[in-house]
């Protein structure tokens, strides 16, 4: 894969000289995405699902084409795709529109302790308000997901299993882990919510093969704009989805004399019943352009080979420092990852990131919205280097040289 060529498609990267190693936080945007949004606003902007005139009808068609593109990307049906504002919003939506009225006191939710706050706080809040019990799965001391612990904790009391398909700190899990967790959850009749924020854009996802109930991701991590995300709802759960935010666009019929009835209105079917208010349609169109860019430019197999080569090289650069702990789990078979986290005994993570910034190098430092796992590991903070299709070996070398200078000077 020619990362240097791909980099030319990204105006911010080709013009600024920034060594951008923070794609897990947000991806940079290719010109085609920026242009698609700009063209839409310049020539096609109109309200969706609201107007009986040509501009509005065309905008509605373009918006629904974006939904179809998302559905095709993950092998789902368009009605299973709810547009949200991001992964966080998608997970909160599931907590409010499904879990809050389905789960009962003492039902159990099982999730790894290493989850992002976005896939932890909505469940902790549900425990507080609805009395459900949260069961945390541990990591092993060498940063692996403790699969035995995970499987042991999924029992007939488990009503929901949730985890990030790709950890934003530790990378991917072995494929067979995903398979056995999903199988065990199915065996006990638990629903499955997957956080795919770090997966989509790096790997092919197929909802028919995965067989989960809900999946969440953000547009901005796969070269799309901010303000748009996706919640996939497997259609077998449609009857259990309640409305939780109300407003325009999600109601079929409202009559004021129905106030004493169970529901105050007749709601639209999925996915519209979960899309109250004017949707982020220009952003959805930007996301469509991002998906088209990925389809046209990136082979997932070549991308993983490329990212593996970058991460292997990075690891080699880091191992020469004996005070640096690389937080990358080593499983029996090699597992692909586009990111690597580490911490140093000598330099605080924030100091490393600030030092690298002097060289125009961007990495993430802190607890990465995952305080509980940092607390468990007794690490105040870590550094994360994350790559994408535009990351080059030269970027990793620039990082290595700047780090060498930190160690030589301080
Ligand atoms: N889950 C994971 C694994 C993430 O990495 C992130 C973003 N860092 C989120 C959830 C939240 O995504 P967003 O902020 O786009 O809603």
Question: If you had to describe this structure to a student in words, what would you say it looks like?
Answer:
The protein is α/β, with parallel strands linked by helices and 410 residues long. It has two domains: 3-21 and 300-409, Aspartate Aminotransferase, domain 1 (Alpha-Beta Complex); 33-294, Type I PLP-dependent aspartate aminotransferase-like (Major domain) (Aspartate Aminotransferase, domain 2), CATH 3.40.640.10. Helix content is 40%, strand content 16%. The chain has 14 helices and 17 strands. The protein has a seven-stranded mixed sheet with strand order 2-10-9-8-5-3-4, with helices on both faces. A four-stranded antiparallel sheet has the order 13-14-17-16, covered by helices on one side. α9 links the parallel β8 (191-195) and β9. α5 (87-102) packs parallel to α6. The radius of gyration is 22 Å and the shape is globular. The two termini are 37 Å apart. The relative contact order is 0.16. The protein binds 4'-deoxy-4'-aminopyridoxal-5'-phosphate (PMP).
